[in-house]
Amino acid sequence: MANRGLGQFYPASSPLHALDPRAKIVATAVLVLGLFLVDSIAGFLVVGAALAALVAISGIPPGAFLRILRPVAFIVALTVMFQVLFSREGATLVEWGPLEVHSGGLRLGSFLALRILLLVSAAGLLTATTAPVALADGLEHLLSPLKRLRFPAHEVAMMMTIALRFIPTLGEEAEKITRAQAARGADFSEGGLLRRVRALIPVLVPLTVGAFRRADELADAMESRGYRGGEGRTRYRELRFRARDALALALTGLILLSGILA
Amino acid sequence: MRVAGYDPATEPYEVRKRLGILFQNPENGLVAPFVEDDVAFGLENLGVDREEMRARVAEAIEAVGLSGYERREPHTLSGGEKQRVALAGLLAAGPEILALDEPTSMLDAAGRREVLGRLQALRATRTILHATHHLEELVDADRILVLNGGNLVSDVTPARLFSDAELLRENRLVLPTVQRLALELGLSPAELRTPERLARAVLARAARGAGAR
Questions:
Q1: Residue range(s) defining the domain that contains residue B82
Q2: CB-side exposure of A100: number of CA atoms within 13 Å?
């Protein structure tokens, strides 16, 4: 896949890639939640500078990382516009017919924009530096204490793994069906939105039917290979929480704290 | 019915430990996003510990000739390679019996050769039950069970089956090319399993003919 979007893994060998996925997931979660406590421009600058440094360390080219952020640019612009135009807090800065811009709105809008951008950057950095399989493994480990509350941690992780395994396969199948339908005269590129959506039905129906057939066969294969849920199962993949992972967590806490206090 | 002494209806897990099934379509039998993780899947289910798992996974991948493929993703593999990954997954778990459900029917010629070559090498190690429509895949079998319409029609050796024209005709079985050629040449189809042996037999006869003249 040529276009890398949000949530795409970017393979490289960097200190960030080498961290335990659990450490990265926890650090990201803490950072994302903590961002709601940051309440000053200086604070956002501190967190932003730290994230920029992390991107530099991660070995992801800055251009590629900015592309990760592109899909959210529209949402950010929209929220800022609403905040700026409809908030009536603080001194009036500009008055133009029915439109008024207040200082409070400007402040809230820019804070919101920064918060969303930093939040997405943190999440993007996590998925860009962590292989999807490692992410699934990390989540299973982190969620496993919830098993006592009957949360199906193993099943969720297994679902993620299977989804990761079959996304490319189903993608190829969708392409094949699209070509087969095009060969029968289906047209996917013309007409209005409704017609184009309708043209997708002959692709989606066989794709769905095929996915169910696959699921059936996969279930048979899994059972015949002795799968019986997470109970008594060992793991091939090993996660090791090392000193550097603890260091990374401590560092994240420090960055967040200075951001909140700044 | 019992499999390796266990009833599949009441003790399915005991049966699954001892019986490995290779399915027709390898595409839908692979579970994990990477080859080595998939090969390890059966071992994880058995609760084998990590050190032993590593060794057995490496050994199984080697046995199907896929060393170097450990980190490949299944969708980047050819049909024959996928089927060999599935086979490695079974071998790693070490079943007593391998059941093959037309394992080559969805593969191209090259893929078939790869898979059959690997299966050939496994024959001495355990019981292999191979369901197929292609008689040439069975020339080296110890026993052939002919099924027709869900009934067991006959239980013979390949040699017997290949020389029994009536049995073949009744069950609409086609002799493999080599055996058919041997038959047409008036040679014994049962003994000439490979093209090389047939060629040698033909040469020997030609030499005899030349000597007699």
A1: 1-132
A2: 11
CB A109 within 8 A of CB A80: yes
Q: Which of residues 210-239 of A touch B (CB under 8 A)?
A: 213-214, 217-218, 220-228, 232-238
Is there a domain that residue A77 lies in? Answer: yes
Q: Does B45 touch chain A (CB under 8 A)?
A: yes
Question: At B23, phi and psi to the nearest 5?
Answer: -90, 170
Domain that holds residue A42: 15-130+241-261
Number of domains in chain B: 1
Interface test with A, best of B28, B48, B56, B82 (most A CBs within 10 A): B28
Half-sphere exposure for B77 (CA within 13 Å, toward CB) = 25
Structure tokens at A120: 């997405």
Whether residues A114 and A21 share a domain: the answer is: yes
Asked whether residue B173 is domain-assigned, the answer is: no
User: Which tokens sit at B126?
Assistant: 């355990």
pLDDT tens-digit map of A184-211? 887 777 778 888 888 888 889 999 999 9
Mean pLDDT of A247-252: 95
Q: Which amino acid is at B173?
A: L
